[in-house]
Write a structure and sequence with these properties.
CATH topology of the largest domain: Aminopeptidase
Low-confidence stretches: 1-7
CATH architecture of the largest domain: 3-Layer(aba) Sandwich
CATH superfamily of the largest domain: Zn peptidases
Radius of gyration: 23 Å
Helix content: 25-40%
Structural class: alpha+beta
Mean pLDDT: 93
Strand content: 15-25%
Number of strands: 20
Strand order of the largest sheet: 1-2-6-3-7-19
Length: about 450
Amino acid sequence: MTVEAAPQASTELVQHLIRLGCVNTGQPDSGDETKASELLRQVVDLPGVELESYGPLPNRQSLVARLPGSDPMAPTLLLLGHTDVVPADPTDWRHDPFGGELIDGWVWGRGAIDMLCVTASMAVAFADLARRRVALPGTVVFCAVADEEAGGKAGADWLLRHHRDAVIADHVLTECGGTPLHTPSGMKLPVLVAEKGAAWCTLTVHGTAGHGSTPLIGDNALVRAAEVVRRLAAYRPLGVIHDTWRGYVAAMQFDPELEAILLDPTAITDWAEHHPDRGFAADCHACTHLTISPNVLRADGKTNTIPGSVEMEVDIRTLPGHTLDDVQRVLDEILAELRPFVDIEFFDPGWATSTASPVDSPLWRSIERASAAVYPDARCVPAITPGGTDARFFRDHGCTSYGYGLFSRELGYDDYVAMFHAKDERVDVHSLGLMEQLWADIAVDLLGERHP
């Protein structure tokens, strides 16, 4: 299948990417992102483009396409997309999650928002720059990586460890952001300059095995684990008003009453839990709190056996300033007298720290100029995302890295937030067209004529 470059060609491309079904379950034999890498290669394999595929396994390949600039000393822009998606249960969906159907101007399917819409539009924009032979001093790189949905160990992290020179860049653009927020003070466009850390961990809860017919003899680990889950779910810390959040609230120009709540570490917790606008409130809460979500529970054995141990996987997200020691202290406090019965093992201690990029940068100014061409009265605002992206790996290497896109007025903020890893994921064709133009405009502005 060959995808021809044409206005809004990313519509067709995102449909095909959805249909590939590169579902990442976290297991090494899942994902099969090589299929997407080969598809995207057909899109960007043009004269003047340098192409390579890299990956730790044959089925986990990432594509790197480079359009060299005329000045080796000029900066490099990396357009960073991922090709894997999370699982989907077809019984929950109104349409086939892997059908990639185009219905009334919307492309439906798993990954339509997270983040195949961005990956597809980046590929089309990159191909358009190459096809038009746009002469830029700086270099543009398009990278479609594997394994973002399971932490990037076989994707962006692996690339930077093993092929750093192929992907390192001065400026990086990846997913999230750019959804119009309509406020009394005008439209705002969030640019994700920071993200929370992820202190994912396994808690192994111990008890004493026994026969299910005589429960008084055993010490049921599952019952103890239920109490652990209850305590984790009940944890209610105060909000943390960090610098990135202060910058976001100031830039959003909320009314004075709401601004006061959002900057009050006590008031914001109660407000978020009771506010009817669940998408916005949940995002505000997550961006100002250490969050703990127990999501997986496993107990070996059978119906007539009292389990001697139970494992649970817990998603913990940290804020700027939090360390792994802080997380350990919180868990110790929550578990209290249960702590001697619980072993704690963190998945990836290096991911526990929140990352951020400066707002005062050439990339920020290019985003502002490119966005103004579509939304002249809108204001770009710096924001933090509660989720994780591959940007964190590049920030660790000193790259200015933002999450952005540019979505139409047809896609509401609440709908956008609610579709991540959820049912009925879809993206409108208008947004795909806006992003095709956005990436090209940013590249030309950032890497072409110099701006102060």
